[in-house]
Amino acid sequence: MRNLLCNQVSRHRGFENLLIGQFLRITMAQFLIKVNASACPNQNGRPTGAEDWQRGWFDVSSSTRRYKETIPHERDFALIWVNETSRARLNGDGLIASATIQTVRPSTMPDAIQILNPILFPRPLITREVIRQYVARHSRLGVEHILVRLNNDRHRTLYHLTDDDFSELVRPIV
């Protein structure tokens, strides 16, 4: 989890000269939403502006893989990956955005996630080609990289990310 440390200094009444430093630890989990374009808001896998996805719902249900990891909550952070190829022929461009999770549709496991304030990257951070290069270079080392896991399990649509996973996704070393 990415931890943010906020330093908040407040002045209590009656103690004008006494400054109290309070440290608030805000913890938010990080997730990767990796879906086909058909699972994006309005089946739009290539948004032209943030408003195309604002308050939109992503279908993260999977008929072949049961999600057993940390459940996302309101205000958690998400990276959004739209698969470059899909059976529906609606294609995306790879890792193209980030957003705050607004709502998770209640269920025994998450089946839809609504996002808030999406930020579209000027160009995809990672594409299928980057994964191929990464797998060719790192998969034989026996190290569990998130990009190797993405390649090995293409049916999953939601991943809980460690700090190392997050760093690898935003700065892949090929």
Please give the largest β-sheet: 6 strands, mixed
Number-wise, the strands total 8
Count of folded domains: 1
- The CATH topology assignment is ph1033 like fold
Helicity, as a percent range? 10-25%
Q: Provide the CATH architecture.
A: Roll
The residue ranges in which pLDDT falls below 50 over 5 or more consecutive positions are: 1-26
Q: Which outline best applies?
A: globular
Order of helices and strands: EEEEEEEHHEH
Rg: 19 Å
DSSP helical segment count: 3
CATH class: Alpha Beta
Structural class: alpha+beta
Approximately how much beta-strand content do the residues carry?
Answer: 25-35%
**Lateral arrangement of strands in the main beta sheet:** 4-7-6-5-3-8
| Assembly context of the chains | single chain
* Alpha-carbon distance between the two ends: 24 Å
Mean pLDDT reading: 76
Would you spell out the secondary-structure blueprint of this structure?
Blueprint: E1 2-11, E2 19-28, E3 30-35, E4 57-59, E5 77-82, E6 94-104, E7 112-120, H1 128-138, H2 146-152, E8 158-161, H3 163-170
Parallel strand pairs: 3-5
Antiparallel strand pairs: 1-2, 3-8, 4-7, 5-6, 6-7
